[in-house]
Every structure is written in structure tokens, then in C-alpha cells.
């Protein structure tokens, strides 16, 4: 009997195990189907070290997650050449296909965006977009002069041509985009074979990319996206978001934000030093200063601009020691000039918005002019403390001897002297003060009221 029960138990156990195994296999198969997807990141803004690091991490993350491709949705006015080179190297060496898609409508791939688009295994643009204007300029937007212009232009043009040649795209236009700063629409880019096609959506993008052969690290690969579509035929797209580190650095890498942080730091520290004990301005100013210095580590800095800003800070701080207004005005001018030159480097298309600089400069100059006026008024104002504050006041003689006596001024008794004799009860006017606390007086008219 026990043997029969034991056999039945084992048979039941095998049945249950088989059922669960079948469920696991089916679930695993279903999970394998659902795992097919493409990854996507959105780059909307200037190209800087934070963006470069984010793209590099996203390529690795998409590959580890088994994504069929990584779509880079791009909209940028440009950025740092050093960061652009890092991004291009990561895309060219990517272990999975990278599709650069200039989107949405109204977006553009300017300057640094040209190189990134050309580097993609697949390059596409949405309707109503543009690409071009990759000529290297200084941080203020002006042309670079002298030998530096020729060297940087030749290097950037060859860099662009090399990428285009690697991906089989129009090398002649790639050089023109740098040397002549040409910019074209998505239709012109398609005609000139700068991009592979124009796509209206992510679905259209993958449909047109289907079957395209790309070079993946020296090996040919035919793109296939059948497994990334769900039962309704829509592509499964997983969006990779920036980590907090990248988000913060990306915000700080905006020269306008960096400039505003530095100005806020100076304002906070100014109010703290001029009014010790307020605490809050000092805390806020210190935090803004640390964030501004962090941004300066990310952005390329022009040494002349930085020196001018430091000089401006020193002059403004000197205003506390020698209040006159002139040091503060000089500091404001030096600070404005430094802010204009701060990101003026051949490697960047970055600058602080001049409206912000001029607004802050005008505010600081206004404050300093008001300070100068206050100092001037204070110097001309009649003293109100000590014996000097009594000059011009009238009083009454309370007692008088041969060489001097005592007078009452505003209810206070003062020792006084005069060039002539005075009688008790006479009204006198204070004309000065001798050594110590003795007033020099003269006879006046009737008292105005004591």
C-alpha cells in the first residue's frame, strides 16, 4: 500500500514538474519575443562633455540590453569640438548599429551635429529639418583669424571628410559644410547623399532602414527589425534617460547657466560681506560658486576672460575696504569684459548671452553709482556726533567767568570759551571746538528755543 502511494506521489510530482516546466518554456519563449527592441536617446541642446559621456554609456547599455539598434534623436546648434570627437569615436566603434535621426520637425544638426550625423551607421532626417554650418568659430560667434583659422579649418574639414568617406557619404559636401559653412534642408541632404533617407516617424525610420547593409566594425551587417515589432506592427522602443549626473552637468555646461551662477555667487558673497551675519546670502553664494566652478571644469575657458573676472571680483571686494564707488565700477567693467571673453575659444561654439551680461553689468554699475552718490552726500553732510556736530547750534550761557564758562546746548552743559566776556542768560552760537570738550562760542541773537 505504501509502495502504491509512493508511486502515485512520484507520478503526480513528475506531472506537476512537467506542467511548470512547460509554462516556464512558454514564458521564456514569450519573453524572448518581447525582448526584441530598439533603444533611443534624445539629444536636445549643445554638445558638451556630459552629452558625450551620456552617448557613450547609452551605446554600452543598449548593447548589453540586446537592443537591435540605438536611435539618436538629434537637435543641436553645435558645441565643443573635443566632445564631438569623443562622440564620433564612440559611434564609429559601437558594437551595435547607431541610427542618427535629426528630429523632430524644426530641429537641426548644426556645427557639431554635422559630424555626429555623418558618423551614424544610418543617417536620417525628419521633414522640416536642416543640417550644416560646421565652420569652426570662436566662442563669441566671430571668425577665427590668423594661422589658427587655417589650421583649425583644415583639421575640421579633413575630420568631416574622413567620417563621410567611412560611411560612404558625400565627402565634397562634408568639406563645404566646414569651409563654406553651407546649410541645407532634409530634401537637399537626401539628394546630395548626405543622409540615407527622410523619415516621418520612428516607425517609418525603421521601415526604411530595414534591409540596409552597414559596416559594423569592419563586418557587414544587414539591418532587420522584424523582431522589434509587437503584434500590432508597432516598434518597441526603449528610451534611455540621462542619469542625474548627466542632467546636472548638462545644465551646468550651458554657458548662460554657468555665467548666471557666477554672478549669483558674487552677489550673494557681496551682500554677506557687506552685511555680516545675514548667513543666507553667504550660503547661497557659496553653493552657486561651487556649481560655477564645476561648470568651468566642463567648459573650455579663455584665460584672459577668467583673469578679468577675478580682477573684477578683487576690485568689488576692495570696495568694502575703501568705499568710493570707483573700485566697484572698475570691477563691474572688468567683470563684464571677462564674461564676454570667458568662453571665447577656438574649440567652442559657446558664449554667454550678451543680453544677460549687459543687464547684469548695468545693474552692478547702477548700484555702484548710487553708492558713489551716497558716499558723496555723506562727505558733504554736516556731522551730527561729538563737538563737531554742535557747530552752528545756539545755546544759553549758564555761568561765565573771566576766561570762560558753561553754556547749555540742547539741554546739555558744555564748557565754553569766547573772545569777549559774556553774561549769564545771553544767547551764544557754537562756532567750533578747541582741544578736548571745550566749545568756542560767540554772542548771538535771541535763542530759537532751548
Verbal overview:
With 450 residues, this protein is α/β, with parallel strands linked by helices. The chain folds into three domains: 213 residues, 2-enoyl-CoA Hydratase, Chain A, domain 1 (Alpha-Beta Complex); 127 residues, no CATH class; 57 residues, OB fold (Dihydrolipoamide Acetyltransferase, E2P), CATH 2.40.50. The chain has 14 helices and 16 strands. The chain has a six-stranded parallel sheet with strand order 8-5-3-2-1-11, sandwiched between helices. Strands 12-13-14-16-15 form a five-stranded mixed beta barrel. Strands 4-6-7 form a three-stranded mixed sheet. It starts with a helix and ends in a 7-residue tail after the last strand.
Write the layout of secondary structure elements.
Elements: H1 2-34, E1 38-44, H2 49-64, E2 70-75, H3 81-92, E3 98-102, E4 108-110, H4 112-119, E5 122-125, E6 130-132, H5 146-166, H6 171-179, E7 183-185, H7 186-191, E8 197-198, H8 202-209, E9 213-216, E10 219-222, E11 237-239, H9 244-252, H10 255-274, H11 280-298, H12 303-321, H13 326-341, H14 354-380, E12 394-400, E13 405-409, E14 412-417, E15 427-433, E16 438-443
Parallel strand pairs: 1-2, 1-11, 2-3, 3-5, 4-6, 5-8, 14-16
Antiparallel strand pairs: 6-7, 9-10, 12-13, 12-15, 13-14, 15-16
Helix pairs in contact: 2-3, 2-9, 3-4, 4-5, 5-6, 10-11, 10-12, 12-13, 13-14
Amino acid at each position: 500500500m505504501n509502495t502504491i502511494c509512493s508511486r502515485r506521489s512520484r507520478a503526480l510530482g513528475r506531472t506537476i514538474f512537467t506542467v511548470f516546466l512547460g509554462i516556464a518554456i512558454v514564458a521564456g519563449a514569450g519573453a524572448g519575443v518581447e525582448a526584441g527592441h530598439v533603444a533611443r536617446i534624445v539629444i536636445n541642446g549643445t554638445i558638451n562633455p556630459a552629452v558625450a559621456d551620456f552617448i557613450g554609456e547609452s551605446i554600452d547599455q543598449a548593447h548589453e540590453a540586446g537592443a537591435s539598434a540605438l536611435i539618436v534623436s538629434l537637435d543641436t546648434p553645435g558645441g565643443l569640438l573635443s566632445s564631438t570627437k569623443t562622440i564620433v569615436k564612440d559611434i564609429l566603434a559601437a558594437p551595435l548599429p547607431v541610427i542618427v535621426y535629426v528630429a523632430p520637425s524644426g530641429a537641426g544638426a548644426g556645427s557639431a551635429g554635422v559630424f555626429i550625423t555623418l558618423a551614424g551607421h544610418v543617417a536620417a532626417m525628419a521633414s522640416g529639418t536642416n543640417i550644416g554650418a560646421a565652420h569652426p568659430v570662436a566662442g563669441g560667434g566671430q571668425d577665427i583669424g590668423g594661422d589658427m583659422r587655417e589650421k583649425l579649418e583644415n583639421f575640421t574639414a579633413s575630420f568631416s571628410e574622413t567620417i563621410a568617406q567611412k560611411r560612404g557619404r558625400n565627402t565634397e559636401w562634408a568639406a563645404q559644410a566646414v569651409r563654406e559653412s553651407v546649410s541645407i534642408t532634409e530634401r537637399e541632404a537626401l539628394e546630395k547623399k548626405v543622409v540615407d533617407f527622410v523619415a516621418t516617424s520612428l516607425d517609418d525610420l525603421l521601415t526604411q532602414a530595414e534591409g540596409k547593409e552597414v559596416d559594423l566594425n569592419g563586418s557587414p551587417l544587414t539591418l532587420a527589425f522584424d523582431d522589434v515589432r509587437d503584434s500590432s506592427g508597432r516598434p518597441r522602443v526603449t528610451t534611455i534617460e540621462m542619469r542625474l549626473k548627466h542632467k546636472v552637468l548638462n545644465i551646468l555646461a550651458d554657458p548662460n547657466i554657468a555665467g548666471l551662477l557666477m554672478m549669483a555667487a558674487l552677489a550673494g558673497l557681496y551682500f554677506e560681506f557687506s552685511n555680516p551675519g545675514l548667513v543666507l546670502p553667504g550660503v547661497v553664494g557659496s553653493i552657486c560658486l561651487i556649481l560655477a566652478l564645476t561648470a568651468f571644469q566642463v567648459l573650455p575657458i579663455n584665460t584672459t576672460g577668467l583673469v578679468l573676472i577675478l580682477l573684477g571680483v578683487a576690485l568689488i571686494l576692495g570696495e568694502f575696504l575703501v568705499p568710493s564707488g570707483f573700485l566697484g565700477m572698475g570691477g563691474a567693467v572688468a567683470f563684464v569684459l571677462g564674461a564676454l571673453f570667458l568662453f571665447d575659444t577656438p574649440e567652442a561654439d559657446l558664449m554667454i548671452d550678451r543680453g544677460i551680461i549687459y543687464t547684469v553689468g548695468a545693474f552692478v554699475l547702477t548700484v555702484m553709482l548710487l553708492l558713489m552718490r551716497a558716499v558723496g552726500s555723506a562727505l558733504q553732510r554736516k556731522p551730527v556726533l561729538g563737538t563737531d556736530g554742535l557747530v552752528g547750534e545756539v545755546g544759553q550761557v549758564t555761568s561765565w567767568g573771566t576766561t570762560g564758562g558753561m553754556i547749555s546746548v540742547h539741554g546739555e552743559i558744555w564748557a565754553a570759551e569766547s573772545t569777549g566776556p559774556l553774561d549769564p542768560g545771553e544767547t551764544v552760537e557754537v562756532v567750533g571746538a578747541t582741544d578736548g570738550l571745550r566749545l568756542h562760542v560767540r554772542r548771538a541773537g535771541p535763542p530759537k528755543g532751548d
